[in-house]
Write a structure and sequence with these properties.
Order of helices and strands: EEEHEHHEHEEEEEEEHEEHH
Helix content: 10-25%
Oligomer: single chain
Strand content: 25-35%
Largest sheet: 6 strands, mixed
Number of strands: 14
Protein backbone atom coordinates (compact mmCIF):
# COMPACT_ATOMS: atom_id res chain seq x y z
CA UNK A 1 0.00 0.00 0.00
CA UNK A 2 1.32 3.42 -0.94
CA UNK A 3 2.25 5.90 1.72
CA UNK A 4 -0.11 8.80 2.34
CA UNK A 5 0.02 12.08 4.23
CA UNK A 6 -2.30 12.67 7.17
CA UNK A 7 -2.73 16.00 8.95
CA UNK A 8 -3.58 16.76 12.55
CA UNK A 9 -3.81 20.20 14.20
CA UNK A 10 -2.95 20.46 17.90
CA UNK A 11 -3.07 23.52 20.13
CA UNK A 12 -0.83 24.74 22.93
CA UNK A 13 1.73 27.43 23.63
CA UNK A 14 5.08 28.54 22.23
CA UNK A 15 7.58 30.02 24.69
CA UNK A 16 10.94 31.65 23.99
CA UNK A 17 12.93 34.61 25.29
CA UNK A 18 10.53 35.13 28.20
CA UNK A 19 7.32 35.35 26.16
CA UNK A 20 4.52 32.83 25.66
CA UNK A 21 1.99 32.71 22.82
CA UNK A 22 -0.99 30.49 22.02
CA UNK A 23 -0.38 28.51 18.83
CA UNK A 24 -1.96 25.88 16.60
CA UNK A 25 0.55 23.42 15.16
CA UNK A 26 0.40 21.10 12.17
CA UNK A 27 1.35 17.51 12.96
CA UNK A 28 2.10 15.42 9.86
CA UNK A 29 1.81 11.64 9.75
CA UNK A 30 3.38 9.90 6.75
CA UNK A 31 2.85 6.19 6.24
CA UNK A 32 0.43 3.43 5.31
CA UNK A 33 -1.87 1.15 7.30
CA UNK A 34 1.01 -0.66 9.01
CA UNK A 35 3.73 1.92 9.78
CA UNK A 36 4.23 5.65 9.91
CA UNK A 37 6.47 8.52 10.98
CA UNK A 38 5.31 11.61 12.86
CA UNK A 39 6.75 14.97 11.84
CA UNK A 40 6.63 17.36 14.83
CA UNK A 41 4.94 15.84 17.87
CA UNK A 42 3.24 19.01 19.05
CA UNK A 43 1.27 19.52 22.26
CA UNK A 44 -0.93 16.43 22.47
CA UNK A 45 0.60 12.93 22.60
CA UNK A 46 -2.84 11.39 23.17
CA UNK A 47 -4.33 12.89 20.00
CA UNK A 48 -1.31 11.87 17.93
CA UNK A 49 -1.36 8.32 19.33
CA UNK A 50 -5.07 8.10 18.56
CA UNK A 51 -4.46 9.19 14.96
CA UNK A 52 -1.74 6.54 14.63
CA UNK A 53 -3.97 3.76 15.93
CA UNK A 54 -2.18 0.42 16.01
CA UNK A 55 0.41 1.33 13.36
CA UNK A 56 4.08 0.93 14.17
CA UNK A 57 5.67 4.34 14.69
CA UNK A 58 9.04 4.26 12.94
CA UNK A 59 10.31 7.65 14.16
CA UNK A 60 9.33 10.99 15.64
CA UNK A 61 11.04 13.53 13.40
CA UNK A 62 11.60 17.08 14.71
CA UNK A 63 11.85 19.84 12.12
CA UNK A 64 13.41 21.99 14.87
CA UNK A 65 13.41 22.20 18.64
CA UNK A 66 11.14 25.11 19.51
CA UNK A 67 9.01 23.85 22.37
CA UNK A 68 5.71 23.92 20.45
CA UNK A 69 7.08 21.38 17.97
CA UNK A 70 8.63 18.98 20.50
CA UNK A 71 6.66 19.28 23.73
CA UNK A 72 4.77 15.98 23.19
CA UNK A 73 7.71 14.06 21.70
CA UNK A 74 8.98 12.31 24.87
CA UNK A 75 5.47 11.21 25.89
CA UNK A 76 4.78 9.87 22.40
CA UNK A 77 8.15 8.08 22.36
CA UNK A 78 7.41 6.51 25.75
CA UNK A 79 4.05 5.20 24.49
CA UNK A 80 5.30 3.87 21.16
CA UNK A 81 8.98 3.05 21.61
CA UNK A 82 9.79 5.21 18.57
CA UNK A 83 13.08 7.14 18.49
CA UNK A 84 13.09 10.94 18.51
CA UNK A 85 15.31 12.39 15.76
CA UNK A 86 16.71 15.95 15.79
CA UNK A 87 19.47 17.84 13.99
CA UNK A 88 22.27 18.32 16.53
CA UNK A 89 22.55 22.11 16.15
CA UNK A 90 19.18 22.42 17.87
CA UNK A 91 20.22 20.60 21.05
CA UNK A 92 20.56 23.85 23.05
CA UNK A 93 16.92 24.68 22.21
CA UNK A 94 15.80 21.11 22.93
CA UNK A 95 17.38 21.24 26.40
CA UNK A 96 15.34 24.34 27.29
CA UNK A 97 12.21 22.18 27.06
CA UNK A 98 13.48 18.70 27.92
CA UNK A 99 16.66 19.07 30.04
CA UNK A 100 16.53 15.48 31.26
CA UNK A 101 15.60 13.66 28.05
CA UNK A 102 17.85 13.83 25.00
CA UNK A 103 16.75 12.87 21.48
CA UNK A 104 17.55 9.30 20.45
CA UNK A 105 19.24 10.05 17.16
CA UNK A 106 20.55 12.82 14.93
CA UNK A 107 19.29 14.05 11.59
CA UNK A 108 21.98 14.83 9.01
CA UNK A 109 21.73 16.77 5.77
CA UNK A 110 21.09 14.36 2.91
CA UNK A 111 20.02 11.54 5.23
CA UNK A 112 17.18 9.38 3.89
CA UNK A 113 14.47 8.04 6.12
CA UNK A 114 12.24 5.29 4.79
CA UNK A 115 8.64 4.58 5.77
CA UNK A 116 6.02 2.51 3.95
CA UNK A 117 8.17 2.34 0.83
CA UNK A 118 8.58 6.12 0.67
CA UNK A 119 11.80 8.06 1.23
CA UNK A 120 12.06 11.34 3.12
CA UNK A 121 15.28 13.23 2.43
CA UNK A 122 16.55 15.52 5.20
CA UNK A 123 17.43 19.05 4.07
CA UNK A 124 19.28 21.12 6.68
CA UNK A 125 17.66 24.57 6.42
CA UNK A 126 18.96 26.75 9.29
CA UNK A 127 17.66 30.26 9.91
CA UNK A 128 14.49 29.93 11.97
CA UNK A 129 16.57 27.72 14.23
CA UNK A 130 20.17 26.48 13.81
CA UNK A 131 19.14 22.85 13.43
CA UNK A 132 16.00 23.39 11.38
CA UNK A 133 15.39 20.76 8.73
CA UNK A 134 12.86 20.18 5.97
CA UNK A 135 11.86 16.74 4.73
CA UNK A 136 11.44 16.21 1.00
CA UNK A 137 9.24 13.33 -0.14
CA UNK A 138 9.45 13.37 -3.95
CA UNK A 139 7.24 10.28 -4.30
CA UNK A 140 4.49 12.18 -2.48
CA UNK A 141 5.19 15.48 -4.25
CA UNK A 142 5.64 17.19 -0.90
CA UNK A 143 8.15 18.92 1.33
CA UNK A 144 7.57 19.31 5.07
CA UNK A 145 9.05 22.68 5.97
CA UNK A 146 8.40 23.10 9.69
CA UNK A 147 8.75 26.83 10.35
CA UNK A 148 11.26 27.50 7.54
CA UNK A 149 8.81 28.35 4.76
CA UNK A 150 5.12 29.27 5.03
CA UNK A 151 2.41 30.40 2.69
CA UNK A 152 3.55 34.00 2.29
CA UNK A 153 7.17 33.78 3.25
CA UNK A 154 9.93 32.70 5.62
CA UNK A 155 9.48 31.69 9.23
CA UNK A 156 10.13 34.25 11.96
CA UNK A 157 13.72 35.23 12.71
CA UNK A 158 13.24 37.87 15.40
CA UNK A 159 14.16 35.74 18.41
CA UNK A 160 17.14 33.89 19.86
CA UNK A 161 18.91 31.28 17.74
CA UNK A 162 17.43 32.68 14.50
CA UNK A 163 18.97 34.67 11.62
CA UNK A 164 17.21 36.25 8.64
CA UNK A 165 19.98 36.08 5.99
CA UNK A 166 20.50 32.42 6.86
CA UNK A 167 16.83 31.48 6.40
CA UNK A 168 16.77 33.29 3.04
CA UNK A 169 19.83 31.30 1.91
CA UNK A 170 18.18 28.07 3.07
CA UNK A 171 14.93 28.79 1.24
CA UNK A 172 16.63 29.97 -1.96
CA UNK A 173 19.22 27.19 -2.17
CA UNK A 174 17.40 24.19 -0.68
CA UNK A 175 13.65 24.72 -1.19
CA UNK A 176 13.03 26.94 -4.21
CA UNK A 177 15.17 24.54 -6.27
CA UNK A 178 12.53 21.79 -5.77
CA UNK A 179 9.93 21.18 -8.52
CA UNK A 180 7.42 24.06 -8.58
CA UNK A 181 4.44 21.73 -8.12
CA UNK A 182 5.89 20.43 -4.82
CA UNK A 183 3.37 20.90 -2.02
CA UNK A 184 4.73 22.77 1.00
CA UNK A 185 3.36 21.23 4.20
CA UNK A 186 4.06 23.83 6.87
CA UNK A 187 4.43 23.81 10.65
CA UNK A 188 1.50 26.21 11.12
CA UNK A 189 -1.33 27.34 8.88
CA UNK A 190 -2.21 26.43 5.31
CA UNK A 191 -0.16 24.50 2.80
CA UNK A 192 1.18 26.13 -0.39
CA UNK A 193 3.46 25.13 -3.27
CA UNK A 194 7.06 25.92 -4.17
CA UNK A 195 5.81 27.52 -7.40
CA UNK A 196 3.44 29.83 -5.53
CA UNK A 197 6.15 31.09 -3.18
CA UNK A 198 9.22 31.25 -5.45
CA UNK A 199 8.31 34.51 -7.27
CA UNK A 200 8.23 36.40 -3.96
CA UNK A 201 11.83 35.84 -2.83
CA UNK A 202 12.97 39.38 -3.62
CA UNK A 203 9.99 40.86 -1.76
CA UNK A 204 10.89 38.85 1.35
CA UNK A 205 14.51 40.00 1.18
CA UNK A 206 13.47 43.63 0.74
CA UNK A 207 10.98 43.33 3.60
CA UNK A 208 13.54 41.72 5.87
CA UNK A 209 16.18 44.39 5.56
Amino acid sequence: MAARIEHLVTSGTFSLDGGTWDVDNNVWIVGDDSEAVVIDAAHDADAIAEALGDRRLVAIICTHAHNDHIDAAPALAARTGAPILLQADDLPLWKQTHPNRLPDGELADGQRLSVAGTELTVLHTPGHAPGAVCLHAPQLGAVFTGDTLFQGGPGATGRSFSHFPTIIDSIRDRLLTLPPETEVRTGHGDSTTIGAEAPHLKEWIDRGH
